[in-house]
Amino acid sequence: MATVRKLSSGKWNAQVRRKGHPSISKSFTYEKDAHVWVRSIESDMDRGSYVNRSSADNTTLGEALIRYRDEITPKKKGKDQELRRISQWLKHPLAKRSLSSLKGKDFAKHRDDRLLKRCSAGTLRLELALISHVYTIALKEWGIPVTNPVSLIRKPTANNARTRRLEDDEEDRLLNACRLSKNILLYPIVVLAIETAMRLSELLNMEWTDIDIKKRIIVLSDTKNGTARTIPLSLRAIEVLSSIPKHIADRRVFYKWKPRSDAMNGAFKTAVKKAGMDNFHFHDLRHEATSRLFELGMNVIETSAVTGHKSLQMLRRYTHISPNVLINKLDGQSDRPLRYSDIG
To answer: Domains of the chain by range and CATH?
Structure first.
């Protein structure tokens, strides 16, 4: 049985009751829309194709984000970064709307607005990926019948790969500035970044138990891509590690900074400025280190074993292999390892 009645607010409330189905209702501004909705619901019930979407109608994006934050995010390696993205989304007007009401055009507008504000494509892709996964979890694990609106829109193309390397005497100037820093750990962490190609997060999380000075290796079990790797240590790296004082209460090597440290980045930026360098980020040290591995004569497989890149495509962000070199190797004209001089 279906009823349509006018409310004191002036809106129209439609309600459908049928045996074997939960009672459902919805309010409309116009009476004709209420009747159209009733006919649509009853038709679906007659065909056996009715899906109760009340949970999608009654759950806001903000509520879904909070549940996702509490249940899903804590299990992720990048939970700190994701918590910040969730916090930003919760302030967005779209967070107040129901999951079912949000369409592709809503997120397309968000995409375009963010790009106009010079948001990087990489950052925007992460923002949209978060919402997309919220919808996926809502459908597959929470039993909320929704269609993922983010899957319907174009994603911005991320092209933010950097190729900045240390030039001329920049390394000497940078290291001298680090030596003069008030923080005694700035110089060692910069040298190790150059010598090992480790990510900043890996360096800040590294513990003394990860290091075997006698074997000259660092064994990382907690990496960005989830794959453990062993990093060989140069004599320079051994010398720097041996100079670092150990903290009584903290097992981490770089104990003065939190695992994700704005203070460390601030100290590095200060050193870069004092060194008179422009446009140089801490992550550029990883690019520098990766390039040096090729210059030492390591091939792509050997280099990826040290750096932790999972695929050749990922390494190509740091190096550009000449097609002629690959052709010569296929023709058997060269059996030597790929060197950095082959990179164009």
So the answer is: 2-52 (3.30.730), 58-152 (1.10.150.130), 170-342 (1.10.443.10)
